[in-house]
């Protein structure tokens, strides 16, 4: 069976309004292409690719930026079940070098909840290419505020720490661990850190569209257009930036989310998965939008306060309170 294996079945659901809305984005020049997928009961029931910017139709893959984050978190969940990581542990219990400059107090839970106090700590892809330089850079980081005292989105920094924790706790490079323990068992291709021709062929090119805002009301750190466009480089794709470097189709993504809903073959511990998909541990206000962050250990939950459409995952105004997911910098959104 191909690792891309997956069944498609027609169902009596009207996806017309969704596809019409997506086509409007393309027709109005906001998107060069758009890919959408919906899955139900373990099967993909809609998979469409629109626009001329998709070189391989439904086989076109996209960099999904921060929609990558739950994939990395799900690797931590596996290691939690095996007793090799624990949210209550301090990061330095597994990654001692990280403790420099007062960071020895930071817990793994705080890193996963974006409350760890180093939201804009720098990690250029050029530095990250060298694992030793990467560790040295993380050791040099300083705290901007007391860990656990507030929420501010750690766009790239926190997940470099999680990647290092996965590598050290498992003894396997984080990209290989995710592939061997998550994507392969789910019948998915290597989503993070593709190599060889997989880092080149059939991937939609990132381009700038529209006018950039004169200024943003919040600090995006290293998430600039210049840095995001570097994800067109095969070497950067292979690097597998853990906070935003996964490359996949929309169908790949919804199959991953179906796995989070149904836990096939007990891939994750049931209790840990239930906690990760339902237990909101962070309700600090999000300074970007001034609503509770509603974060679990790796995901965002819609919530029942009527403000789900304002969270970092734009759940819309009609989604269920228990919906969970994550968004990405270029307009990606995935939820179940």
Description:
The protein has 336 residues and is an alpha+beta fold. The protein is 30% helix and 8% strand. It contains eleven helices and seven strands. It has helices spanning 16-27, 69-81, 108-113, 125-128, 131-140, 157-170, 174-183, 225-229, 234-239, 250-262, 270-278, and strands spanning 34-40, 43-50, 62-63, 247-248, 300-301, 324-327, 333-335. The strands form three sheets. Strands 5-6-7 form a three-stranded antiparallel beta sheet, covered by helices on one side. β6 (324-327) and β7 (333-335) form a beta hairpin. The protein is globular. The two termini are 26 Å apart.
Provide keyphrases for this structure.
336 residues; alpha+beta; three-stranded antiparallel beta sheet; two-stranded antiparallel sheet; 7 strands; globular
């Amino acid at each position: 069976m191909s690792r891309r294996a997956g069944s498609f079945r027609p169902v009596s659901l009207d996806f017309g309004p969704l596809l019409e809305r997506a086509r409007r984005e393309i027709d109005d020049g906001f998107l060069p292409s758009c890919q959408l997928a919906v899955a139900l009961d373990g099967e993909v029931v809609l998979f469409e690719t629109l626009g001329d910017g998709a070189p391989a139709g439904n086989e076109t893959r996209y960099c999904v930026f921060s929609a990558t984050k739950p994939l990395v978190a799900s690797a931590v969940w596996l290691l939690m079940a095996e007793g090799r990581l624990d949210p209550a542990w301090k990061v330095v219990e597994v990654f001692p070098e990280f403790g420099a400059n007062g960071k020895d107090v930071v817990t793994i839970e705080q890193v996963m909840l974006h409350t760890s106090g180093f939201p804009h700590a720098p990690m250029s892809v050029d530095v990250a290419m060298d694992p030793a330089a990467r560790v040295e850079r993380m050791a040099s980081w300083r705290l901007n505020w007391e860990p656990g005292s507030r929420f501010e989105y750690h766009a790239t920094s926190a997940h470099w720490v999680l990647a290092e924790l996965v590598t050290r706790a498992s003894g396997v490079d984080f990209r290989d661990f995710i592939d061997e323990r998550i994507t392969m068992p789910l019948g998915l291709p290597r989503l993070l850190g593709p190599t060889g021709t997989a880092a080149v062929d059939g991937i939609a090119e990132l381009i700038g569209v529209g006018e950039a805002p004169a200024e943003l009301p919040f600090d995006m750190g290293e998430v600039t257009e210049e840095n995001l466009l570097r994800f067109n480089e095969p070497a950067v794709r292979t690097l597998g930036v853990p906070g935003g470097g996964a490359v996949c189709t929309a169908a790949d993504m919804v199959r991953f989310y179906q796995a989070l809903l149904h836990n096939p073959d007990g891939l994750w511990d049931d209790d840990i998965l239930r906690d990760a998909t339902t237990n909101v541990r962070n309700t600090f206000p999000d300074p970007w939008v001034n609503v509770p962050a509603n974060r679990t250990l790796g995901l965002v939950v819609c919530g029942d306060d009527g403000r789900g459409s304002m969270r970092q995952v734009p759940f819309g105004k009609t989604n269920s309170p228990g919906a969970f997911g994550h968004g990405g910098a270029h307009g990606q959104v995935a939820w179940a």
